[in-house]
Each structure stands twice: as C-alpha cells, then as structure tokens.
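User: Hey, quick favor. My workstation is busy. Could you predict this chain's structure for me?
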Amino acid sequence: MISRESLIQSLERALQRSPAVALLGPRQIGKTTLARELASKMQGRVFDLEDPSDDAALQNPMLVLGALRGLVILDEVQRAPHLFPVLRVLLDRPDVPARFLLLGSASPHLVKGVTESLAGRVAFHEMQGFQLEEVGDDAIRQLWNRGGFPRSFLAADDQQSFLWRRDFVRTFIEKDFATLGLGATPRSLGRLWTMAAHYHGQVLNASELGRSLGETNKTVQKHLDMLSGGFMLRLLPPWFENLGKRLVRSPKLFLRDPGLLHGLLGIGDEGALLGHPKLGASWEGFAMEQILARFPHADPYFWATQGGAELDLFLDLGGKRVGFEFKVDDAPRVTRSMGSACTDLKLERLYVVTPGSKPYPLTEAVEVISLGDLLSQLDRLYPTAH
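Assistant: No problem, here it is.
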C-alpha cells in the first residue's frame, strides 16, 4: 500500500478553514478510499450516490443532512445536482454543525450547481494519481511507464497494468462519461481520445482533428473540453505579452496520466516506451504534471514564438517567474530558445528537467536537474506558492 497521509492532512486543514471541501479528480484515482479513511479517522458519515440505498436515503436531503453533525461525505456528488441548493442552505447556518466533503469526478464548471449554488462556500482540492514523493525516486520509471492510477501502478506486472488501462479507457467511454453528467457519449470519443494521444505535447489544431474525424472544429473543441473536465486531458494555454514578437496563441494538448497515454498509443512496457517516437513528449507531460501537483493554485502556461523559440512550462511562483524545459537527454546543452525565454520572460530561473541527471549549471540562470531533485528544491525555494 502507498501511504497518502499528506493528502489526508491537507484535507483536514481545508475542512478546518471551510465548511465544505470538494475533492475532485478522475474516476478510479482513489478518492473514495481516501475519504473512507478520513471518515474512519473523524467518525464521519459517508453517502455513496452510486449506491441505490444511499441515494434513496437522500430523497429528503434537508431532513437527513440537516440533522447530521461532524463530517459528512457525499461521494460522486455530480450525480445529484439537486443536492446543491440544499447544501447552500446548510452551509449558511451560523453555527455550521457539520462539515461536508464532496467527492466528484468532473470539473466544477461542468457540474451545474457547484459554481452557481455553492460559489464562495466550498474550497476545491484536486486529487491526482500517485506522486513521485509518495512512491519514492527509485520507482520513477514505473510511475512514468504505468501512470499514477493506483490499480495500474500497483499491478502485478506491466502486462496486467497495460490491460487495466485499456479496460479503463473502454469503461470511461462506454459508461463513465455519461454518469459524470457530461451528456451522451459521442460515438467519435474513442477515436478522438486516441488521436489526442498522438497529438500529445503538440499545439492544438482543432480543425485538423475535426477533418480527420469528420467533425467540425467546434464539436471537437467541445468534446476536448469534456475530456479535460473529466481530468483526462490538459489544454495548456500559451503565455503572451506585448513583447513585439509574433507568439503562438493556441493551447498545447496533453493527456494528464502517462499510463493512459501509453495505453492509447499501444506502449506496453518500458522497453517499448524508450524506443517510441513519443518518448520526449511523454516525459514532458509526466514531469509537468508532477510539478503542477506541487502548485495547484499556480496558473501554468507554455511560451512559443512564430520564430521557433519556446519554453515548455512557465509558472509565476510567489511573484517569481520560473521556467521549465523537459529533456530525456543525459547531458542537455544550453539552446538559443533558453536564452530567449530567460530574456523575454524575465525568468528568475530556468530548470532543464531530466529523468536522472545530477544537477549542474548551464548558465548562471539555467540548471540541469533530475525530477526528484527539482521537486525537493521547489518545495524549499517557493514554499509560499503551494
């Protein structure tokens, strides 16, 4: 078992600050297991809205929920949008006798009622798969290859992990997509998701995807937004200022979990990954998600000019501008793009992140560093940005 005590402690602190906390993340990521562990610790009451008996028990939610004290957990809350107005009334009680933990598998902007009824009353906390700090630096290649979904990472071998991920994709398309409240599953969703895997790490061209699928670019964009809302994709926006340069203004497309990326690309094990054309893009997405999990409140961007200069990831951490480049090379060298990024974006630091390099400087502002060492350094240098 992998301990997730830091997540439990983070939720406990959030529940002390706010009468309601929404724990959001993809299906099968471990939200229910974590919540039940927290309920056992705090003697809370759990309602699983996928359980018919629990759903029936909440047919009169004001009467049932209004009488409870302490911690109340509502699992898969996006299945019951009629509860949100009731929660608004309960959260506005002056004494706040109960604290609510809401578990959901869709982003709040896709769940009608969360942003409308509970605005200003609920704190959002995103849960992702296993992080490198939880599994240890020695397991970095397994985490990169299999991804962070617990059943994938903890599978008996690579083949069992690969089969689980393929089944997950099929189940998500055929069943979960509709139950998330995202509407009917488009017939082209499976092909779109597979094509998105092949575009992983590239600037999005919705028109090109649409032509391949026989869909309009607006339809493709809508379905990509839905996959993003289900925590399957990340559309990384571009950064642009009035720099006097022509900049790329379309987002970059990433699959958030490397294991699902590899499953959709047919990459069954580490050997196949190391020889695959998407190796560099896979590392970029994996390392980026590990960094962003450390800074959930930071707004991430990439930066690119029409002239070819680019930066993989750009963050403002506590008022300090930090850039990241992701390389699988053993010994990366300084490039013209790095110099342009440091100058144009006024970076305090630019990190070139690799799977296992020992730290060494390229210039005064540019440093090559392994992912594990980087995460430790970021925690130390930018503690207020978490």
